[in-house]
Design a protein that fits this description.
With 593 residues, the protein is of the alpha+beta class. The protein starts with a helix and ends with a strand.
């Protein structure tokens, strides 16, 4: 649902339940645009993160608060002056917008009770944390906005706080309640006044308060209408369908107590406060409170971002080497072209030597080429004798031959390196966590591409092999890098287990084992097991973007390690082939953690 108004509504409800009558015991500003309120009550101690970062504006409970900077920033000092040790009287939301207000009671300098409002505006570029007097005068804000910066409103000490009309939109609720007639009127109003050609999803997200695109997609999904339609395309029937989808989601949100964290193999990808039909392709776990679910989600997202950065840096390093190798190959190809005439040089040397007795010095020599029975003109160096010219051609021949042999050897080695580095790039794209990346890094260190100073640390890290269960019997293992390929092919697999790999291109090794069949016998598999194993090999290969990929498969007992090959490399002489689609959606695979 992204961080939309519905998410904020659930957060406000939880904050109200946990924080009302609690006291603010500590305030720190650990980073630019971030404030943490340490709040203590009889229900526990809570570290409330309030971030006005335009890229990640949010608030939730964090487990561990970071260290406070040696010198507190100005806004933090203002907050400490006015609301430290203050009592939270109320927490509420502005409409269905991403605006949360804390009413905080504290003792002023005269010893009298006073109320301040701490307002969190969590709306992208408009995000801010603002401290306001009870009469609406701004005391200070984490970001100051002047008339030059924004024509919508100014935010700073002494200014009056208000929510601009440009920020607020149509509320999906009528005075805080679900009202079908009210919502239908609003949809009709949008249809009648919508002049853009934007599709329904974009219009719903733009016109309604606190509705993210993820939630708008879910509304359209439940409506069972085409998401590419515009509001102008809607007739009365489809408008009613859209209304039903909207009401259905609002009611489910109102009645659901749990929070749903959707995930893939790399971590959490989305969160909602009711199951979303549009996210049915993902698995999910549940959490009792949104403020704790968000802590898990953004921690996972931070790890994913860090891994993407590490993977991206390593990929750029590998691509740089690849580019240099490919440039070398182009130069060497030109060198080989220069060597293509080496046999002509040899023949000229032989002809001059054979006819030396009948030839004299000059610019050229006319001789009969006894290989072709045709007359041939050979250029000569006037300063040299015929024999010396002959020897010169032999020297040029030998030089071209040596060059060809050396360049051919270099090209073969470089071709192997290019294949290896392209395989590394594939495995970096398949990496799901830091351990996967560290294994690749360790391998590159061992092969001399990276400095070895951190290799001991890297060796200690072991990543998890992908393990699937199909039809409650067939265990399928997929390697994500050369270390894992080596392990599943030569440690996990035994004699008659089936082994799969994309033919002639970088890719993962895939092993199929069976619970019920005796590994000592040549057990067979149903056709669909071959299909799913082939699909996994295709999906985890360089050609995962193609519709069909040729796959080699054989028994594990036919695999051998090459004597001087890279880790994860195998050779085999007995194999079968199949053509597989990388599309895994048609198979019901259970991931084994």
């Amino acid at each position: 649902m992204a961080y939309d108004g519905f998410c904020i509504g659930k957060i406000v409800k939880e904050y109200k339940e946990l924080l009302v009558d609690a006291k603010i015991s500590k305030i720190i500003e650990p980073a630019s645009h971030e404030v943490i309120l340490v709040i203590k009550s009889y229900k526990g101690s809570f570290n409330i993160l309030c971030s006005a970062n335009p890229a990640v504006p949010y608030t939730f409970v964090v487990e561990d608060k970071p260290e406070a900077p040696m010198q507190a920033p100005m806004f933090c000092m203002v907050l400490r002056k006015y609301i430290l040790n203050g009592k939270i009287l109320d927490v509420y939301q502005t409409g269905n917008e991403r605006i949360i207000t804390f009413d905080i009671e504290h003792m002023n300098e005269m010893g009298d009770k006073s109320v301040k409002k701490l307002i969190l505006e969590l709306m992208g570029k408009y995000s801010n944390v603002i401290l306001v007097e009870e009469d609406g005068t701004i005391i200070d804000s984490i970001k100051h906005v002047n008339a030059i910066t924004s024509s919508i409103r100014e935010v700073g000490p002494g200014k009056k706080y208000f929510v601009p009309d440009e920020i607020t939109r149509i509320s999906p609720y009528n005075e805080g309640k679900i009202d079908e007639a009210y919502l239908k009127d609003k949809l009709i109003y949008i249809k009648d006044n919508n002049k853009s050609n934007s599709n329904i999803v974009n219009v719903i997200a733009k016109e309604f308060e606190g509705v993210s695109k993820v939630t708008a997609k879910e509304i359209v999904k439940r409506s069972e209408i085409d998401s590419l339609l515009t509001f102008a395309d809607l007739n009365e029937e489809s408008l009613n369908d859209l209304l039903k989808g909207f009401i259905s989601l609002l009611k489910d949100m109102e009645n659901e107590e749990l929070v749903y964290l959707y995930k893939d193999d790399a971590g959490f990808v989305e969160y909602t406060n009711t199951p979303y039909e549009s996210l049915e392709d993902y698995s999910y776990v549940t959490e009792n409170r949104m403020i704790f679910a968000l802590s898990k989600f953004y921690k996972s997202k931070q790890v994913r971002t860090t891994n993407n950065q590490k993977s991206g840096e390593l990929a750029r390093f590998v691509k740089n080497i690849l580019e240099k190798d490919k440039n070398k190959m182009l130069l060497w190809e030109n060198d080989l072209k220069d060597c293509e005439n080496k046999e002509e040089l040899k023949i000229k040397g032989e002809l001059l030597k054979a006819y030396a007795y009948s030839l004299t010095k000059g610019k050229e020599a006319k001789v009969l080429n006894y290989y072709t029975n045709e007359e041939e003109i050979i250029e000569l160096d006037e300063r040299l004798t015929i024999i010396e010219n002959s020897n010169k051609y032999f020297k040029l021949y030998n030089k071209a031959k040596r060059c060809e042999n050396a360049v051919t050897e270099l090209m073969l080695k470089t071709e192997d390196e290019i294949d290896y580095l392209e395989e590394i790039l594939l495995f970096l794209s398949l990496a799901e966590n830091a351990s996967d990346i560290d294994e690749i890094k360790a391998e590159l260190s061992q092969k001399g591409y990276l400095r070895k100073k951190n290799i001991k640390t890297l060796k200690k890290t072991k990543s998890k092999i992908k393990h699937y269960l199909y039809k409650d019997n067939y265990h399928i293992y997929v390697g994500k890098n050369n270390v894992q390929n080596e392990e599943i092919s030569f440690k996990k697999a035994v004699g008659n287990d089936w082994w799969f790999h994309a033919k002639g291109i970088p890719g993962s090794h895939v092993i199929v084992k069976s619970d019920s069949d005796n590994p000592a016998t040549e057990w067979d598999m149903p056709d669909d097991v071959f299909e799913v194993a082939g699909a996994l090999a295709a999906a985890n290969s360089k050609h995962s973007d193609m519709t069909k990929v040729e796959i080699d498969y054989t028994r594990k007992k036919h695999l051998k390690r090459p004597a001087d090959g890279n880790m994860g490399m195998v050779i085999y002489h007995t194999n079968y082939s199949l053509v597989a689609s990388p599309d895994l959606s048609r198979f019901e695979l259970t991931t084994i953690s």
